[in-house]
Amino acid sequence: MPTEVQTTEVRQGTLRAWDSANWLATVQLTGSLQLWLKTVPVSRAIASVEMVVGRKVAVLLFDPTNHTDAVVTAVYT
After folding, report:
1. Do 77 and 56 form a contact (C-beta atoms < 8 A)?
2. Residue 52 φ/ψ, nearest 5 degrees
3. Which one of 37, 52, 57, 67 counts the least CB within 10 Å of its CB?
4. Structural domain count of the chain
5. What spatial distance separates the first Cα and last Cα of the chain, rounded to whole Å?
6. In terms of residue numbers, what domain contains 50?
7. Are 72 and 42 contacting, i.e. CB atoms less than 8 angstroms apart?
8. Local confidence pLDDT in tens for the 77 residues of the chain
């Protein structure tokens, strides 16, 4: 019985909005002017104070064909 192999991708993006009440982000993926991921969950290991609009973020896409299956795993400058 064949099993489907799911690949995971880590993509760079820019934080465009931060919802601190629900711990969700809007992220524009690097290299794309049109693709903005909305309501992306953010790792609770990231301090809310670090989520400043315009900062770079790392986005883990569990399924690259389904951009709703993602999480922000890091924030950096």
Report:
1. yes
2. -105, 130
3. 52
4. 1
5. 46
6. 9-76
7. yes
8. 667 777 899 999 999 999 999 999 999 999 988 889 999 999 999 999 999 999 999 999 999 888 889 999 999 98
Q: Distance between CA 13 and CA 37 in Å, rounded? A: 10
In a domain, 4, yes or no: no
Write down the pTM of the prediction. Answer: 0.88
Beta bridge partners of 71: 60
- Angle ∠(20,22,25) on CA atoms, nearest 5: 65
Question: Rounded CA gap, 7 and 71, in Å?
Answer: 15
Which residues, in sequence order, are bridge partners of residue 28? 14, 36
Only one residue has tokens 């064909």, namely: 65
CATH of residue 38: 2.40.50.230
